[in-house]
Amino acid sequence: MAARAHPRTSPPASGIDTRLPWWALALPALAFAVLLLLIAGPGEAHAAPGDPAVAHFVERIQQTLSH
User: Fold this and answer.
1) What distance, in Å, lies between the first and last C-alpha atoms of the chain?
2) What angle do CA 19, 21, 24 make, to 5 degrees?
């Protein structure tokens, strides 16, 4: 015996409420701003002493990009 399916009597609502809470937009915007400030902030970080070949390689990349 097959189960009866209930037919839809009205079409689905076209005006579905898709409002977002305030923090759904504020938190990604805040995270983006913080990351942007970290990237564009003053260069106060100092390189740890390490392999001079790596430091030389990084300097060459900076020189190439600055020209």
Assistant:
1) 79
2) 110
